[in-house]
Amino acid sequence: MNHKQLSLFLGKFLFFLSLVLLLPLGVALYYDFFAPQTLYPQPHSSLGFFFTILISFGLSLLFFLLGQGAKSVLGRKEAILLVVVIWLISCWIGSLPFLFTKTLSSPIDAYFESMSGFTTTGASIFHPKAYDSAGKEVPIHYQNPKVPGKTYVFYGTITPVKHHKTHELLYQGVEAVSKGVVFWRSLTQWLGGLGIVVLFLAIFPALAVGGKFLFHVEVPGPFKESLFPMVKDTASLLWKLYLSLTILQIYLLVWTNDQMPLFDAFCITFATLSTGGFAVTNSSIGSYHNIHTEWIIIIFMILGSINFNLYFHLIRRKLYQIYEPDFLFFILVTLVGALGVSLTLVGAPHQSLAGINQGIYSFWAALRDGFFQSISVQTTTGFATTNYDVWPYAPQLFLLLLMFVGGMAGSTAGGIKTSRFYILFKILRHKLEEIFRPEKVLKLKISGKEIDAKTEITVLAFFTIVILFAALGICIFVVDGVDTDSALGAVACMINNVGLGFRAGGPTQSFAFLPPLSKIVSIFWMLLGRLEFFAVLMLFVPSFWRTTKN
Hints:
Layout: H1 3-20, H2 22-33, H3 46-66, H4 76-100, H5 107-118, E1 130-131, E2 137-138, E3 140-142, E4 152-154, E5 161-162, E6 169-171, H6 179-194, H7 196-203, H8 208-218, H9 231-256, H10 262-273, H11 291-304, H12 308-315, H13 325-343, E7 349-351, E8 357-360, H14 363-378, H15 393-405, H16 418-436, E9 445-446, E10 449-450, H17 453-479, H18 484-495, H19 516-530, H20 534-537
């Protein structure tokens, strides 16, 4: 293992991250010193970002010094290790603003929130603190109506904002967090959506063979297609497309909703296109009560879940490239899932995220909430407009299954990916045909391309790993004191980078109820899901660390 090479590239990356942190610092400075304090009484956060930048820049210089004399070409092992280390250190740097601004007091909670952001999971640890009549903080007692035998006792994480004279409660939950921190929280999702390593490759010079392998390790899906011979050109084009869609969504949100603040439009867009799901209000997207906003978000959640290579073919007017099985299968699953959820909702209880009962679902109301919630879950975004935890079991089962499906390969979405399900279907059909027609030589093909045995084994191995880690995660959560329903939803949320769960981790709650061990496991599961297992699990194979002779 060439430690000098790793140090050199870590130094470059941390310098890049220091520059990125200037964005939330600028936002924090504006809201701390220039915006009307009567409108934005949230705590100041400028110093927190300033100290974070100093640490990131200081580490950058240290790694630069350690990497002096290293060659600018990475080997395969170094590339795999570098991707994992970059994600781990990015999440650690990303957690510092939460701690320095005293938004969160626990390092585990801060790292959880940062990992959830960069991996575009969207599972939040933010939860309003509770106080007694004397103003002393008290633990929260929570019992879900569907799990009456289990009561969770935990402390909130976010200090409310009160009027400095009357002590009247002004804001609580995420709305009580400083604007700089909220912006950074959303920005981490936007950076992690297409990939912080891919962005790094787009900015810095091409890294030869190692750079291409870095790209392949981070981009999700069974197929890794480079649009240009130089990986820097491919990464640059992907980020230009990503940025263009971002600007378009911000414009549409503000144009169609005159009540939408520009700050909210930026943060919502960051969380939508990245399929991340961090909201800036306690009631998520349900707080806007605007059907135009909801449908714009639906469209861009879908756009973020489509293979970005298809946009390149669209620009080049190669329309025939769009009609590939993975895209058609993704659209089919999305429509069937949305209709399945919507139709099973008609006549079911309708409750807002604020806990207000709104009668029962009519057909059109079910269609509106059913489409939004199913697409939000399948694209692994994790926004909510209604309390789906009070829905009947049938639509909840649809949502759980859609969590594992996910979006297309090469998109910002999590989950297993529709391409793998399509390949699995083809493999099963191919094997069944081989049984009753053993005399014929059959080739497994998708879009005219032959799928080799290596790809088949990799896809089957991926499904096996997902099942094993999902089962293991549920067992750990249950042993750690989490009820079975909440454990199932939480594991599905973390391993697929969805952000939404059920019961104690439902849409009206947070994941602050999780015990420390479950939070640590969740952090690791989120990373596994984002890097699609193999890159992380390779580090636990002893032969990976052995020196190979050329």
